[in-house]
Design a protein that fits this description.
- By secondary structure, the protein is α+β, with helices and mostly antiparallel strands.
- The chain folds into three domains: 2-155, no CATH class; 184-255; 264-410, Heat Shock Protein 90.
- 53% of the residues lie in helices and 18% in strands.
- It is built from eleven helices and twelve strands.
- The strands form three sheets. The chain has a five-stranded antiparallel sheet, with helices on one face.
- β1 and β2 form a beta hairpin.
Length: 411
């Protein structure tokens, strides 16, 4: 990304610079041609006015990029010359200051110098540099355009504006790359911290579980209802904490670089039954009405057994948690034209349509105002979506408020 970004920025800068210079050169060439035509017209009009003939060669010479000499070959009336200059330059839209002077052979110097601008009179130029005379000419006048660069730049202001916009875009792009890299680094640090923290939780959780089991089996605690109740609370909360840590670790494993699924032929119905058996304690605790409609024609599918078990357990766990009455869960499997599917329906509180589009995002939890009666990290459906995506399965979630939720997976 950095290499492509740098190449793009350098390429844009090069192209914009090239076309800016090219545009300036074209404008300068156009300016020079217009000046040459204007000065020729001035010379021809003055020769006609003075009834003289112009030299056939070297009538107009460009002595510098903004300095011209005109060999008129006759005496010059400065007032007539100034009028002709202003008229011809204005006719060709050369709207910039001009300095001119006429050579006086008696004093051997440029005299009658003045600074004017087409359409304006009496332009004051206090810091004007003296104009250079030429030894190879006798009757001539010189014209200088002191503000030529400013004039040309004002004519390509659109190009300069677009260049400035392109430059700002490049700066913004470079800043965006810096922000992305910084966010990537912070995200990696955050992920490493969460992974390390959850791994560190495993040891004390195991120790608490062992201690809770010892307490529960102790005869003295069994005979004391209050202590027995506290011991069961410790065990239940320890299991809940362990489940949450396992969810975070499963997400971390699924997001690791080089994450690989260990696919193998798997009987879907057998996995469902084994998952239900593992979840029996939770189902009994919440008095869940569970209905199994498992199609016996289901053939084996290619899946990672561990992750398939986890996503079924996650969906069942959500069906229990997000229900404000007696949970009723229906699990069914079906097959149709080389397609195998799993459907888990519940009678829970349901999900709004707007939230339904976001529940598969990481850490997203449906807003319930200031009431947080259901705890979690917002990782359950994200994990389900991640595993289905990794397997190439189709995940479809259909839900309505107070109408329950149906989660369908097409293998």
């Amino acid at each position: 990304m950095i290499v492509l970004g740098v190449l793009a920025i350098v390429g844009i800068a090069f192209v914009q610079s090239y076309w800016t210079i090219k545009t300036y050169d074209l404008k300068e060439q156009e300016f020079h041609e217009s000046v040459m035509i204007s000065l020729r017209q001035v010379a021809e009009r003055y020769a006609k006015f003075n009834k003289s003939e112009l030299p056939k060669n070297n009538l107009i010479q460009r002595r510098a990029s903004n300095y011209y000499s005109v060999n008129i070959n006759s005496t010059i009336d400065v007032h007539v010359l100034e009028d002709y200059l202003e008229q011809e330059l204005a006719h060709r839209s050369i709207d910039t200051e001009i300095e001119y002077a006429v050579y006086d052979c008696f004093s051997d110097d440029l005299v009658y110098g003045n600074c004017c601008k087409p359409g304006q009179k009496d332009v004051v130029k206090e810091d004007a540099e003296p104009l250079v005379k030429f030894d190879d000419l006798v009757y001539y006048f010189v014209v200088k355009f002191p503000e030529k660069k400013t004039y040309l730049l004002s004519n390509i202001w659109q190009t300069i504006l677009f260049n400035a916009i392109a430059l700002l875009a490049c700066i913004f792009f470079a800043y965006s790359m810096w922000v992305i890299l910084r966010q990537k680094k912070l995200s990696e640090q955050q992920t490493d911290f969460i992974n390390n923290m959850t791994h560190e939780f495993k040891t004390p959780i195991s120790s608490i579980k062992i201690a809770a089991d010892v307490f529960e089996k102790n005869d003295y605690i069994k005979n004391d209802k209050r202590l027995s109740h506290y011991a069961s609370i410790i065990k239940d909360q320890n299991k809940r904490l362990n489940d949450q840590v396992e969810k975070v670790l499963n997400i971390a494993r699924s997001e690791e670089d080089g994450f690989e699924l260990h696919k193998e032929p798997t009987e879907l119905n057998d996995i469902i039954r084994s998952t239900i058996n593992a979840e029996k304690a939770k189902l009994n605790q919440h008095k869940v009405l569970l209905t199994l409609n498992l199609s016996e024609s289901i053939s084996s599918i290619s899946a990672d057994k561990l992750h398939l078990t986890n996503i079924i357990a996650n969906i069942i766990d959500n069906a229990i948690k997000y229900c404000n009455k007696l949970p009723e869960i229906e699990i069914s499997t079906f097959s149709n034209n080389n397609t195998v599917g799993l459907s888990i329906k519940d009678n829970g509180i349901g999900i709004e349509k707007d939230d339904l589009k976001k529940v598969q995002e990481k850490f997203y939890r449906v807003s319930t105002g200031n009431i947080h009666n259901v705890k979690g990290f917002g990782l359950g459906l994200f994990y389900v979506h991640k595993i289905c995506q990794s397997h190439g399965w189709v995940l479809d979630i259909d839900s309505s408020i107070a109408g329950g939720t149906s989660v369908n997976i097409i293998f």
